[in-house]
Queue: 3 jobs
Job 1
Amino acid sequence: DEMELVDDEDGSDAETEDDEDVLEEGAEDERPKERLGRVTDAEIDEVVQGKKVEAIMNIFVSAVRELGYNIKEAVTPQSTRKFDDPALVKNALRKISRRLGESLPSLLNKSGSFKNTTSKIQIRRFLTALVSAVTEGSNDAVLVSTLLQSLSPFVPVLHILKGVTKTVLKTALHLCTSGNEVIRLAAYGVVRAIATRAAGTRTMYQSTSFKGVFLALVRTAHHYNIHNLPILGFLMSCVVDLYATDMEAAYQHTFVYTRQLAIYLRAALQQQSQANVRAVFNWQYLQALRTWGLVVSSFPSPAQLGPLIHPVVQVALGLMDLFASPRMFPMHLHVIEMLNHITSRANGVYIPVSSYILRILTSPSLTLENVKDGFSGGKKRTRDEGSVDKVDLQFTMRVKKAQFRTGDYKIMVWKETLYLLTEHLASHSVSIGFPEAFWPVASTLRKLKKDVKVPRIHSQLSTIVKHFESTAQAIQTKRNNVNFGPCDMMAVKSFEDNLKSEGNPLVHYHASLRRDRMSDFAAKQQSLQERVTLEGTLSDKDARNKKTRSSRQ
């Protein structure tokens, strides 16, 4: 059934020609004031099943105002009604938003524009009220996500309503950084729909969407901790998914932002002033670099973003060269991890990170001569060392001098570095030239194994060397039986594919380390969640006790 906006005798298109003439807050309504009763459940069902959009919109706006949210339109008796039951307010919002989405085609003509200007005004009212509800009602995840999902049918007509697309997109991008996962997903669905709508209308806001998601990530990355880690991971996935919708636009945006990172780095390399150094040594720069590493390695084909892998890698290596101080090793570990992930996603592209890993392991400042079982001096922890804050490498870029001298810190750096080395070796252990390419690494590890006396680190070094030798020996044995040369690329690829399918000790060892690593992080998150829940329970209990005391007084 087609929906009607007003009766034929109530007005004409000429009377409402300009859809921008929406009444401002506080404007007077010319219609006589009516005394209307409270909105009931039966009335909501009747209006929703009816054909009067204006009546539906009055109840929708009344519901939004009933929740205490501001709407920039005239205050009228019809749009400020009270509800018979507070539970009806959100129920009305859900029913009406769904009904209007289903009935939108009846308000459009064959060309996709509105049949009359009055239709535009009412749909504008709906979208304005809905944006107010999702912006101010972010505490109710179920309601906000439902309202955001109801926006999908309206995306194709947003460009017809001047200024509405910008408002909706800005709101959705803001909600993409919400702490609630349900709201984030629904908000990104709106952003993606606006960026990918039909050809001819998408180009205006596609660039805004591409930029907006990345800039939302950068703003969120001002700090990096376990609380905003899920949000940053989500936003990185959003960037990858959104850029996959248009590879040509993705190339342009990725090139521009990578070039900007390189410009900041070049300025710091040429003149290490405080401003230049701060521009590149911060979480926002590092997370931006990690994002573009994820983007280019997700589409490594030469016809996609493959040509941009080299510039991203060069910026990453330059960042480690700029900050070579041992106190900056935590930042090096972040960059090395990112480069390892590029290798694993981009079909094993070789990145020379082993030299940076060995630089950490052979650093005189990280020697383990006086460290035993994680404590300096091989004895009990000293009073000064016990008072130093413990370092969490996952959320650290640089350590203090006192932290740097502790045995705990040195053990953590060694363990993390050896894990990244194992990951690096495992990624290339299916290459036909693996034994020769990584012989210097194995040789250095053998020397370190003789010098390191800490049991945990010595055992890990021994395991890596053992698996390296087993893997290299297996490849050499298999190579001795081939009848092709290194110039036969097809045969080499087939050889390496067989190595990959068969697996090897290094790959299996890395997989086991990765499982343990993920398990430890899941336990950390669970512990944090339990602590947050406990703190919330205690806060509620304190609030109740305070209320009880005040009532007694």
Job 2
Amino acid sequence: GGAAPLAASAPRGCLAGLAPPCAAMQVTEFNDVKVYDLSAGKSLPQFLEEARKKQKSLRHDEDFRKRIDIVQDFEFNIASGRIVVSPDGEFVAATGVYPPEMRLFELRGLGMKCSRGLNAEVVDCQFLSDDYRKLVFLMEDRTVEFHAQYGYHHRLRVPKAGRSLAYDQESCTLLVGGSSADVVRLDLELGTFQTPVPLKVIEEVNQLAVNPAMPVVSCAGDKGLVESFDLRDSKKLLRSLRVADPEDADAAVGAGISGDNVTCCAYSPSGMHFAAGTASGVVKVFDIRSSKPLAQRDHNNGFAIKSVVFHSRGSDFKDLLVGSADQKSVKVWEAGSGKIAASVESKYTINQLVFYPNSGMFFTAVDNQRIGVYFVPSLGLAPKWCSFLDSITEELEEGTKKEVFDDYQFVTTDELEQLGAKELIGTKFLQPYMHGYFMDYRLHAKLKAALDPFRYEEFRKERIRQKIEAKRTMRVRVKTGKKVDVNQSFHQKLQAEAEEGETEGASKKRKEAAERAKALLNEERFKSIFEDADFAIEDKDLSAEKATTSLSSMLPGKKAGRAAGRK
């Protein structure tokens, strides 16, 4: 019964400075850019199943207590397929299997608002309103399903299997593209089908994209082309854009999939830039006024691009980024130059990439129970609903911050003279600091080795001697009356105490002291005290009596511990 409160209070624990859940956060670094994986680790069902098998409460599981759940129950039984963020940024809708299900999450509450079962797996989904009240789903069984605030509202069937949805708010038109050369149009204001838009060259549509600034819809399809049309006059198609090179057609990337297929596309928030990804793993960015690409990025994984999206971290074009994902990796790069800004490798197959607006967080729908959640501070701040991530990452940055003089050795003038390096004063090899100088630790090691060239040879001989002595200890030796090289007086005192306890009429106190002395003499853990010179006891620091008491307290058994305490 206490599992859910623990999971829900994990982010709040970060705020209050309680148990450090940050220990469960995985950090990857690429070109000094850190990416924080907030979905790493086991899912809640996995924790519950493991606790049931071991018959152990989760409140005693350190991994469970230190895990991070940005949004509670942000997972599915098997895998997640699609993710979409509402226009107002307050809700996230995600679909997954199995069984087919839609889960709606309220980000301000850091939890799930509701879940709804579906009749088939979801191919694509869209928000039709600013909040969660109106949604539409494109199903695998060729149906389009509309949901309202209260749940299921209406279902209709499209002529061909659909692959992508697009919605134009100005005309209330829902567009469905799929395995045909026509784009199906539905007028949601009148509730009727409109005349489909016939495409010129491409025979199937992989994804639709609506320009946010102009009434233009682009269709990414086969034959390396992207065809566009004006929503005001759908009969007149605009100029086609060639994205894939003709030679890519020979590179087959899957069963029946040609390398020149344009698999996904997207418009920038300003509507002036367009990005498209191909089946050969290449993403290109265009200015809508030119057919020449501004930049391109090859994933070099041999997989088709599954998702492409624009992300802005500022108002300038230099701050415009492109996020692209194939089934194994996510790359975020600058739209103008193609320079990599962040990179993530996933252990699971990626189905979709979605950025949370105006932040450094993005989600990935993957073939795993937990939905992928990543935070990159260099891409933007954390969203308002989880602003505690900024403080967590700042603490981690401060904890791993490298000091300026970590690679330097501090030496005084006298030490320089001993090393024979006094001539280096005033050169670039020495940095004055307080009463001495900072020297590169590699240079310091070389000077020290040159000063004492036989030091390594002595170290080598000492190691050989220790190995020989270790082999000799395998022989059977008589322990009584043996001579020791280190702490001889302490050894003699222990032997005397052991002999006094064996005499007839010895008191209980002497017998207990004899037992402690025998334990110290025969214990394997303390044999180095009489063999290794590093454990030599100095009379001015520690007497033999104090050593006996301190070592006796480390022996097992309550009786020895009480006897040592009374002494």
Job 3
Amino acid sequence: SLFLSKMVWALRTVVCGVLLLCAHGAVLRNHRSMADWDASPSSPSPASASGANGNGATGNVSEHFPLVPVIASVSAHSAPTSGGSDVVIKGEHFDFNGQVLVGGKACVVTFFTKNEIKCLLPAGHSADVEVRVFNAKGAFAVSSISYDPPSIDTYTQTLSTLGGDMLKLTGKNYDYSAVVSVGGAVCAIHKVDFQHIECTSPAAQAGGVAAVVVQVGNQRTVSVNVTYVAPPPPQVTGLTPSSGATTGEYKLTITGVSLPNTPKDKISVGSFDCVIQSQSEKQYVVLMPPGEGANLTVKLTSPALATPLYGEQSFSFFQPTIEKVTPSAYSLLTNADIVINGKNFGSKNTVVTIGDEKCAVTVLSHQRIVCTPLVPSAGGSYPLVVTVGGQRSSPYEVVFFYPPAPSLSSQTGSTEGLFRLTLTGSDFGGSSGKVTVGGSACEVQSYQPHTIVCLVAPGEGAKLPVVVHPSGRAPLPASQFSYSPPDVHSVTPSIVSPKPTELTITGANFGFTAKVTVGGKDCHVTVHSHIRLVCTSPALPSGSAQALQVHVVNQVSTPHSIQVK
């Protein structure tokens, strides 16, 4: 029995040792040494991995030391640099709470079992990109996958020996890391996506064939050949824009081939010299000066040219456009100027006609013309036309007439006066004159050919004539203005005895000559202002209601009732 007990004890010792060795061997087989632990916050640190089961504690391996993932294979039907394709990972011990990284980027899991994972390939590039499958404790297995290599499907096949051409490539599996070489020289990229590249070609010698290669990460395309050709003879082929405002000060782009590109080159459009802002063998960018005219030729002169180059496309300034004419209705009695607002009136050689007669230009800018018309002998509608550099505007109709009575900003106003009245008319005859309202002066504060502002004096009465008296001219037809009628707000006291009583009346527009009646009888006024009257009532019958009214010239207030007790 003693012998059997010793044998059982020895057998238990051997079994425990074998179990520990197996657990340690599983760790080694799945590439998870203590040095492999990720130091990031999402993974356990080397310190936490100590102990028999790799998590700093002792106990059952299945509870405290999850099995490390094992990758058997990584495959994808395609692996474009744009990503998005399915990646299939097969193996063992995959953890639902783990994650997959491809080249350090998350591969979003779409399907999961303990032996298979499917995820969406992130955008990337290169061959043999590291794939890591993590469990929830941060342990991982490593494999790799290769993105599809770049390819060139179509491309620009001829380039100028001068360089600077746009080399356009279409194909597959490009990205931001792409590098393009032409004959070993860098083609500077300025536009790239997963299927297109545009770059500026380097210079080369004529007749040569150069290999074009696109490098993306550690993969490259099969080379394609482009041919360098000598540039054609110098010529100006294009102009953008081909028209513009007479104000100038905007850029023109003149394109061509084999342009001289010397410091002493000159560009002119018609008779107008342009300022060159930038230039190359393929284009000049110039600043267009102010001007006028149509179908103007572009000319390039250079010490490198025996004769000037002339553009195939001409330039035209915009034709003049009339937007507004002031006044559009013009009095036959005035000698005032006409103001024309619009666009592209030029800066010289501008002619304005009204009917068959010229309007003498006194002020000229690209947006405004002032001219003095030769007034026709008869009223009517006449076409006004602006001609600039041989280009005519569409006609704008101007009416000549005798002026009517002015319109007023207000037909009524307080008897206290001292408010502004604006008169608007077609012609007030120059810049000075006077205004009267009912024969009394309305103090002029502003006198313009079509607008007068004056300060109305205190007054009273209805339907008073408002007359404009232009300096040196007969008065214009009159308008009508009425001071507001008297308005009683309150009477104190409102209850009176039959005997004569002093009444205080408050309100508005009592003028200068107000009279008060109570029951049709005179209430003698002793105190008078525009807003207050004091009068002594006549004897009144007791027990009655009497109407009080205020009379100012030909206007009367609404009756106000007072009680007699």
